[in-house]
Specification:
Domain Essential protein Yae1 N-terminal: 2-39
Radius of gyration: 20 Å
Protein name: (wild Malaysian banana) hypothetical protein
Keywords: Cytoplasm, Nucleus
Number of helices: 7
Largest sheet: none
Organism: Musa acuminata subsp. malaccensis (Wild banana)
Subcellular location: Cytoplasm; Nucleus
Structural class: mainly alpha
Oligomer: single chain
């Protein structure tokens, strides 16, 4: 194996390692986002009688309904951009701790929308005994 072959092999190994790390970091977030999109979409498209059986409180059914539109308006590309921006913000914060400002709080909300929607959905689902089994699967994933 020559010098060039060694350089190529080193680049490939480094790229694979980076991919593996990135995949591991993003898989959980992608899974959670899929859960949010899937559950909100399924719920909205159910007949009202099934919605009432799954979610007893009218207020919670309305909250489920209200989550659907903003979740569906976020495209896959937008979700990826938000996730990337969130990673950048986390890296910045770990390197420098600065005072929070109003504009940074707005940016934080924007990049954390994915987490916000997931947490909001999990609160709703946890209050519904009929959907509880699905939450247990997601909570197990979240704890790792």
């Amino acid at each position: 194996m020559g010098y060039r072959d060694g350089i190529s092999a080193g680049k490939e190994a480094s790229a694979q390692e980076g991919f593996n790390i990135g995949f591991k970091q993003s898989a959980s977030s992608g899974y959670k986002w899929g859960i949010v999109r899937g559950i909100t979409s399924a719920f909205v498209n159910l007949p009202d009688q099934f919605k009432e059986k799954l979610v007893k409180k009218l207020e919670d059914r309305c909250t489920f309904q209200s989550l659907y539109k903003p979740v569906q308006e976020i495209s896959t590309d937008d979700a990826l951009r938000m996730y990337h921006f969130q990673l950048q913000q986390e890296n910045k914060q770990s390197h420098q701790r600065s005072k929070a400002t109003v504009s940074s709080a707005i940016e934080d909300f924007d990049c954390n929308k994915l987490d916000f929607f997931f947490k909001e959905l999990m609160l709703l689902v946890s209050e519904s005994s009929e959907i509880k089994a699905s939450v247990d699967v997601v909570k197990g994933e979240e704890e790792e």
